Amino acid sequence: xxxxxxxxxxxxxxxxxxxxxxxxxxxxxxxxxxxxxxxxxxxxxxxxxxxxxxxxxxxxxxxxxxxxxxxxxxxxxxxxxxxxxxxxxxxxxxxxxxxxxxxxxxxxxxxxxxxxxxxxxxxxxxxxxxxxxxxxxxxxxxxxxxxxxxxxxxxxxxxxxxxxxxxxxxxxxxxxxxxxxxxxxxxxxxxxxxxxxxxxxxxxxxxxxxxxxxxxxxxxxxxxxxxxxxxxxxxxxxxxxxxxxxxxxxxxxxxxxxxxxxxxxxxxxxxxxxxxxxxxxxxxxxxxxxxxxxxxxxxxxxxxxxxxxxxxx
Length: 313
Ligand SMILES: C[S@@+](CC[C@H](N)C(=O)[O-])C[C@H]1O[C@@H](n2cnc3c(N)ncnc32)[C@H](O)[C@@H]1O
Hints:
Radius of gyration: 20 Å
Largest sheet: 7 strands, mixed
InterPro entries: Diverse_substrate_MTase (IPR051052), Methyltransf_11 (IPR013216), SAM-dependent_MTases_sf (IPR029063)
GO molecular function: S-adenosylmethionine-dependent methyltransferase activity
Number of strands: 9
Oligomer: single chain
Protein name: Methyltransferase type 11 domain-containing protein
Bound molecules: S-adenosylmethionine
Family: Belongs to the methyltransferase superfamily.
Keywords: Methyltransferase, Transferase
């Protein structure tokens, strides 16, 4: 495995005590060092590789209709933000019956380790890399013929840089299919939980990894503009409201707990209380369907973009 720069560790409850409570400056430095590191639960995430029917539709119907049903043995694929690899193997790889190689990267070491263990495939090479940091992906410059990214690029701090890096990775004529989360009930829930006086001391300065579209009220035309500025041809761009029903309460809870960036900063003895309040807030923003089943009501940007044929690399 190629490991570039990023490691993460779970913050122990002892370290997770805010310095105001302890007066311990060494602890304070350790706290600040770890506070901005993203920590997601890969084991919990991998139980349900992206459980959304709308994502499956995109791979099974939309992309084949847009010409992604024809490919050859020279295809070089890439999954940006692959998580533990379940979506890569189950939904993305079937699009490429013929393929030279498929690279799949994620910023988190635990995601990649799990992908290598649980979702091994002879054609997939998993590595740790940061889509925002060109130095960690530059060895693939101009090589990728088909790039996919599912629910990942909105996690980047500098999302324009992420799109720019996608452009640099693609070979001339190469295409990228991206599902980008513009709005999700998760976003206001994280903001609410971070700002609650009761929890705030544990979450100061933590990056919530929320989409620019949510904070700045960008719509699809904003993204189209920046993609055009970068040099992409836009083949398909659709802003879609999704209403994805979870098959069980457990699936819903496992999924959102696994991607809750605040969770690992909660002391162990307060985890249960935090989860209860977190899901009360989720229910408030998310709602349920007529059968009381949990749903994900998100606004998703579906994109198919191409690096023009006439570029030099
Ligand atoms: C919601 S998960 C989606 C995972 C996978 N694409 C799927 O469909 O199941 C988002 C993933 O993006 C990864 N991620 C976040 N920021 C990243 C970055 N800067 N570079 C690479 N991966 C990143 C996270 O670690 C996480 O595994």
